[in-house]
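look at this one:
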Amino acid sequence: MKNPRSFLLLALLFIISPLILASSTAAQDEMIIQYASRNDVSGIARVIREGGNIDFRDEKSGQTALMRAILSGQTSAVYYLLKHGARTDYEPIFRACWGSESRHTETVRIFLEAGVPVGVLGGPGGKMTLEEAARSNKMTTQLIERYKKREKDTEKRGGKEEGGNTRSETEL
């Protein structure tokens, strides 16, 4: 190369650019959790569009955006994250069951609508039922009972839902 300064500058740029990209991605990943805790669906969507990790786990709290949205009862964020592929091992639904407000019941409903089976076991030790987790919230307990009945009725009909599940996001 004719100009050693140009070579040095080019080499430095080659070394630094991945670091800059990595730090901006990490910042995006952290922001998705903040947006989820504020129910800011457009912020979540922007981070995902820009390549952020929907399943990013905060190092300090161990929480993902989905978990943070659940714990703070942010139902629109929960719905959006589930709809766009956020992973769950069903533990988040148990955390939502423990909440005592109507927003927590709504969060549980979104999980059930998304296909989480009513009979799933989880919570501490992995042996708790949803009913046990929700015992401090009467509305959530009633909701779980309705879904349990719906699942039994569906099994009796051979696994066929009457009319199908065609609820829109606004109805959820």
Summary: The two ends are 63 Å apart (CA to CA).
